[in-house]
Amino acid sequence: MTDIWKDVLAEIEQIVPGAQFSTWFTGSELDSAENGTVVIGVPNVFKIKQLQVKYNDIIKDALIHNGIEVNSIDYKVSATTKSRNNRNTIPPYPTTNETPATIKESRLINSFQTGLNPQYSLDNFVVCSNNDLAASVARNIIDAPGRKFNPFFLYGGPGLGKTHLVQAIGNELLRRDAGLKILYTPISSFYADFIKSLQNKKGDEFHQKFKKLDVLIIDDFQMIMNKDASQAEFFDIFNDLYQLNKQIIVTSDRLPNQIKSVDERLASRLTWAGAYDLQLPQFEDKCAILKSKAEYRGIEVEDEAIEYLAENVKTNIRDLEGEFERLLAVADLKGMTPLQIINEGYVSASRGKHDKVVSAKQVVDKVAKFYQMTAKEMCSKSRVAHIKNARQVAMYILSKELGMSTPKIAAEVGVKDHTTVMHGIKKINEDLKLNFGLRDQISAIREKLYE
Prior knowledge:
Layout: H1 2-13, H2 18-25, E1 29-34, E2 37-42, H3 45-65, E3 72-77, H4 79-86, H5 101-109, H6 132-143, E4 152-156, H7 162-176, E5 182-186, H8 187-199, H9 203-211, E6 215-219, H10 228-243, E7 247-252, H11 264-270, E8 275-278, H12 283-297, H13 303-312, H14 317-334, H15 338-343, H16 360-370, H17 375-378, H18 385-402, H19 406-413, H20 418-432, H21 436-449
Parallel strand pairs: 2-3, 4-7, 4-8, 5-6, 6-7
Antiparallel strand pairs: 1-2
Helix pairs in contact: 1-3, 2-6, 6-7, 8-9, 12-13, 16-18, 18-19, 18-20, 19-20
């Protein structure tokens, strides 16, 4: 089986881009193939859905080309692949007394203070549809730092895993080469240290410290706005490191050109290798995240309990995990299962932290008022740009907050064809990727809904 699967993977690797292949197929194995039923083992539960949805046909064709009869393909988490995948990686939930041996050894060899938290690893970063491209880039950087994806600019809203992913890159690079000089620092710390160096007349020493780095990871870059001297210093450090092919990684809650007062030259350089975003997870993504956390913890959590949280927590991953931890804590305290705790009403995950139930009419009225028009005007047949945009925002919120079907949404906003609603929701989804003003507007409307 092993030799056959190697041939199958070699064929798939010719079709699937390298970064995606590394992300989704590493650690997989052909478990069995009998009477047309093929079973493939994978290291963790969140790879199963991706292989089923994105790569099942490719896998099937490759198996058939290598002489395997295929009527159906089943995927399962295999103990052997899980063990192999976890070997020499950072455990997902270390305690203060459980510092990973590999990171501990690295600290002994390299006394350089990295600022990295060993808790963050790629092994416990759940890859889903909202972050799979960014995760693929991360793996590519680990294989070849300072080359193709340099700088790596990662952006997205709070609580989506930016800090986790970039620190995971640093930890994995350090595990592979303990001699690397890696520094993770929030931009606020960079600013504070820079001001201190100027006060102590040690500006050159500050600059040289950064110039010696192999990898620089800057978090929360948006906080640099209105700090002209710090921007100038960072600009110089960026240029020095880039010329030396040193890896630069930057996170932000928005694109550089959308950060007030950021120098255009710096904004341009930060996205030389592209900008990669982390989006809000979909229902299936949230289920995968929670199942993965339960698997890592070695605990059983009913699917109904996981689906309840995934359906009702609509803010971000941080809040989702917080609700999950609260559910487990109450279940442990009461000696009940998570689903029993939910059914008994001991916990109640709210819609984006709100308990109030809103109606479709309230959504329409609030959106119209926010955009300074009447509901009748917004739901008219007008094609004026600002009215059409408000109408599409209402469609989006009715879909995301109330879970309404497109025909019902069409009736609420005064359009005849549900395909118009589908187009409107799709347009808002696409605009949200780059339009941070629109993100702020929808966030403000949501808050007003639950006042």
